[in-house]
Write a structure and sequence with these properties.
alpha/beta; four-stranded parallel β-sheet; 4 strands; globular
Length: 176
């Protein structure tokens, strides 16, 4: 299974390219912007698209006019993945910049489907939105993707992943 995290421009361009693998797309747009209109063609091999709208904010620190990912959004992501996981070769997730929301969403999908999200958390060009990550992981848990033995990550492990990723991201971007 392939996983791609794209920004808005690259997601728009993705639909105009020929792909020899079948993909499903999750497109996350800011709450005040219009969703990308994607075309599904035989050439681009896009078979299914989920359009969502929420802002790149954390649940604990957002302005009243900003929209946080909802439990319903997270449940829709899990339903979409569940419907498509045996029909596609690739999940493509995009947001405006391709750095936070899409990375958090894709990391949760990767952990649920493969047991490994390190490609996101060890990538210095990604800084996953942890509210998105947690909500989507919780929705996967509720859908039965994890057993009691592999309940997933403790809060301590999630915080450790986040701190390590932020360290990698800051070093790569020369931020102190």
């Amino acid at each position: 299974m392939l996983f791609k995290v794209l920004n808005r421009r690259d997601a728009k361009n993705y639909q105009y390219m020929n792909h020899d693998y079948v993909s499903a797309m999750i497109s996350i747009t800011d709450s005040d912007k219009t969703n990308i209109v994607f075309e599904k063609t035989e050439e681009n091999n896009i078979r299914s698209i989920l359009l969502l709208q929420f802002d790149d904010v954390e649940a604990h620190s957002h302005a009243p006019n900003e929209v946080v990912i909802s439990n319903e959004d997270a449940q829709n992501i899990v339903k979409f993945v569940n419907t498509n996981k045996n029909k596609v070769d690739c999940f493509v997730v995009n947001c405006e910049a391709g750095v936070s929301r899409s990375a958090g969403c894709c990391a949760a999908i990767m952990l649920a489907l493969t047991g490994d999200d390190s490609a996101i958390f060890n990538n210095p060009s990604k800084c996953p939105n942890m509210t998105v990550y947690r909500k989507v992981l919780n929705a996967f848990w509720d859908a039965g993707y994890f057993s009691e033995d592999t309940k997933g990550l403790s809060e301590e492990e999630i915080v450790c992943k986040e701190k390590n990723n932020i360290k990698i991201w800051k070093e790569a971007n020369d931020i102190t």
